[in-house]
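Quick one: structure for this chain?
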Amino acid sequence: MRIVIAEDDPLLREGLTLLLRAEGLDVVAAAGAPGPFLSAVDEHRPDVVIVDVRMPPTHTDEGIVAAVEARRRQPELAVLVLSAYVERAFAADLLASGSARLGYLLKERVGRVEEFLDALHRVAGGGTAIDPEVIGQLLTRPRPDSSLERLSPREREVLALMAEGLGNAAIAEKLFITEGAVHKHIRRIFAKLGLAPDDRADRRVTAVLRYLDVAER
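Got it. Here's what it folds into:
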């Protein structure tokens, strides 16, 4: 796995580089600003990039803008975004813009090495990884009446873990239930949200998008 890092904090940038190389991963470049980051993407054609949301010069959304541009130049590029705190609008937009090969993690997750590496591999493998803290904050926000209100507490838990990007086996492990039980919960979620088996869209992605969209209002 070839990785390019975009992080303006030199300590975190070096720490990430050392951590990933210690795990046998190939960090081909690490940049502290959007320009050098994009140059590194063009030169090295990485499999995945790790990008800070806030970078110079204004420290607002330069990292996101650079990540979008990197994906425009290399459409199959996997992107794992890091943020110091929850930015709900970006988390909700993440799946809306296309969930494949995208992740959003809080920087504190980097210290939990196993979870961080799991998210990185999941994103690089074509999946999605959304920080549990983001999902937790969305869950606590008041929602208007919607089809989501028909979900049971357990079904909400399953849908929240789906929103994190977990597959059925991982959800079963988290909730201490069988994969068969997870499958039944997901079928009931689809039924309560009116997502028919013959829908052309991916029902799993549609359910997660509806969950995040309602939570964001």
